[in-house]
Design brief:
The chain is mostly helical. Helices cover about 75% and strands about 0% of the residues.
């Protein structure tokens, strides 16, 4: 049993590593530039020096592997950084939406339990009959 737990935990670590790497790659491949969001390039005129300073501060001039390593290191320390759009900490942004998300999640869970438990009981009582086939 202990070997199985260790095996499953190691699988989980590998999957999380792969998913975080894919997430980073997709963020880099997405259209747009974080500097544009921060400096609002479409709204005001920004100097080339300001763009370079912001890119250096964010580490966007570093090679992609170093950017990935810094991002992964911050992720392991639960430092999700700041939002490019609102300049608020990302963890605060997540916390703002956590309440409504949990309400929707538990509401959906309650509705599905209220529907599925009676249907399961009916299917069990009328096993191999028309109601069982309809419910399946």
């Amino acid at each position: 049993m202990f070997k199985m737990i260790i095996y499953k935990l190691s699988q989980m670590i590998v999957v999380l590593f792969i998913l975080t790497t894919i997430t980073f790659i997709l963020m880099k491949l997405s259209p747009g530039n974080p500097v544009d969001k921060i400096l609002h390039l479409d709204i005001s005129h920004v100097s080339h020096e300001q763009i370079e300073t912001t890119e250096n501060r964010l580490g966007l001039n570093n090679p992609i592997f170093i950017q990935w390593w810094h991002w992964l290191n911050q992720l392991f320390h639960f430092d999700l950084g700041t939002s490019y759009q609102t300049s608020e900490p990302v963890i605060k942004e997540i916390a703002n939406y956590l309440g409504p998300t949990l309400i929707i999640t538990f509401g959906t869970l309650i509705v599905s339990l209220v529907i599925s438990i009676p249907l399961g009981i009916i299917a069990a009582v009328y096993y191999h009959k028309i109601w069982d086939r309809i419910i399946r």
